[in-house]
Write a structure and sequence with these properties.
Length: about 180
């Protein structure tokens, strides 16, 4: 039986310590990850045509898994995601750095080409940044947990968070993150 690992979200202080170790396109990607809760495959699959700047939303439609473009993990993962101001600023910063001829939003800064998969960015950027920051090591997937837990801690409605994360129902969200709801502490 598969035993699911408990979420270990980063605190706001830990998030800032990690982001301080990053620059340019890599920082934009991870700042966007922390403020949207997108899966890494969804971040890498985000295309410029999936961005609506005037409405401050993105359309999560694609994912990059092992170098191949696929649909998202589940049908409910296909969604419209409303961006908060921090996510929006990271996105705008990234779009300024991204060559016009590239369709993808987040690119490898070494060659301005789309990332092949998450291993490359994980090994070359995430692991070194976490190590340099002095923060207890956790995988980059915990940027997603950080987003969800911070919204719940602020009293956000679980149904809205489920929609933002691409969960099929609020039960999935609550089973993973209920302990961050203020009245459950």
């Amino acid at each position: 039986k598969h035993i699911k690992k408990e979420p270990e979200p980063f605190t706001a202080e830990e998030r800032e310590k990690i982001l301080t170790q990053m620059t340019g396109q890599v920082r934009n990607l991870y700042e966007f990850a922390f403020w949207t809760g997108l899966r890494t495959s969804e971040l890498l699959g985000l295309r410029k045509c999936d961005v609506d700047i005037s409405r401050k939303v993105i359309f999560v439609r694609k994912a990059i898994v092992h170098g191949k473009e696929k649909t998202t993990k589940t049908r409910s993962s296909i969604r419209t995601h409303k961006l908060n101001s921090s996510a929006f600023e990271a996105l705008i910063g990234q779009l300024k750095l991204s060559p016009k001829e590239q369709d993808r939003v987040f690119l490898n800064p070494k060659n301005n080409q789309p990332w092949r998969d998450d291993r490359q960015i994980y090994n070359q950027h995430w692991c070194p940044a976490v190590k340099k920051s002095g923060v207890k090591y956790r995988t980059q997937y915990n940027t997603r947990h950080s987003y969800a837990s911070s919204l719940l801690s602020q009293g956000e409605i679980p149904a809205k968070i489920a929609s933002q994360l691409g969960h099929s129902n609020t039960q999935t969200t609550l089973s993973n993150y209920a302990r961050w709801i203020p009245e459950n502490n």
